[in-house]
Give the backbone structure.
Amino acid sequence: MLGALLKSLRPHQWVKNLFVAFPLLFSKHLLEPSFALTTALAIGLFSLLSGSVYLVNDIFDIEKDRAHPKKCLRPIPSGKLPLAVARTAAALLILASLGGSLALGLPFFAVAAGYLLQNLAYSLSLKHIPFVDVLLIAGGFLLRVLAGAFAIGVPASPWLLGCTFVLACFLGFGKRTHELATAGERAGEQRAVLTRYRLVHLKVILWVLAIANCVAYVLYTLSAQTKTFFGTDKLLFSSPFAVFGVLRFLALVNRGTADSPTDEMLRDLPFMANLVLWAVATVTIIYFWR
């Protein structure tokens, strides 16, 4: 049962909580142990909190998940994890993560509580409203970035928040596009909101967001504020990695496999290798190449 509980917490999805570390990376404090340790604690707390959110969402979606070709194998819809155990675990994780959040200050706690409330609203009703569902998911990434900034006491720049929001919308609409394209006549059974989307509209939105992501990142690297803050104009050299990542995600969306593209990208060697190269290039430019 412990294995089923751990699987329901989706630890492979906790990589999304690395967005909490973005303020650390772009604040020029990455190499300072106290800042790094605080950020690591913040990531851990958000991982516990997001794990509880996955549990709550699976509890609410149990009937829909049973109709899904892959989600029906999850511990809760398959019956491997009893509902009573799932509810108890979710409650304990929420209490532990919110209680721990107080150690990082009231602003961090407020963002963590806001993240939880937003996800509860999503699970209860808002996930059934087209476009609002994806915007809420994108809002969750914004809250992660804000939490990371509050944890270490640095401002989250408008550029960082803007680029994060556009990227999160791109990932969210990419997932909806893939789901609608592969679900066929069972779209409504797998996710009710899919019946209110149109594939042609989603594809247009996805390409617009792909272009917006590339343009926003390049403009960020070229902005006077960026050059002044980092003391270099070399951040533009990290742009090819950002553009490749966008194009690779588009390819995963259009591949047509049963797996979600947001899950598949974590197993995709070209995507992950490119992500590592972007991180290395960005750290090198910001901290060592002045």
